[in-house]
Amino acid sequence: MKIRKNLLKLLIIASVIYACVRLWHWKIGFTYFTQLSNIYTATAVLLQLLFDRRATRLIKYTATVSILITGIVFGVVLAPMVPGGMLAAYRQDHYASLCLHFITPILTVFDFLWNDTTGTWQKSDVWFGVLPPTLYFVLILVLGAFGMTWHGMAAPYFFLNYRAPAGWFGYLPQTAGLDSSGIGVAYAVLGMIGAFLFAAWALLWLARRIARRKTNT
Fold first, then answer.
1. Which of 1, 25, 37, 203 is nearest to 133 (CA)?
2. Percent of the chain having pLDDT more than 90?
């Protein structure tokens, strides 16, 4: 029974390991919506396998929020920009991209809703969902202050490139391209925070409803 309960977690770890092996030739590059969120998710799942406590469930919750947004951002924003379209985007590096951006997010969300809805979940837990991307963005700013760049940009993603013409608060859609979204980074950050908060709220809402249903049956 315990093996069946942990099967999804083991599949999540296997998916991340396979993708990391296939992407061994890549530099991690601090790309949150690819390697970091997946490594964080696998680490959170492993911690939960070793120590099933509220703290590890909370870490898994934040990882679930992050990996869910990873799948959505890649599928909606990044994959359409890949030469060859969506299918080519997911086939990259012997389907490592499919693992990172689709299989791991799906398995993690399903595992959270199936196995992690027991115990006490509080409405205030939703704020933990925005901690990982906030810490990540602070890290990017710190690294940028020390001169680190990503393909000539101040951030790994075009919509976070605060050195683009639109800067922090500008609106220059005519400058949109591979290194700029054409709008100020502040607006992109606000949009990201809103997306993470909504995802965190939705997962927590579902978790609380499922927990109540389990209690009543």
1. 37
2. 36
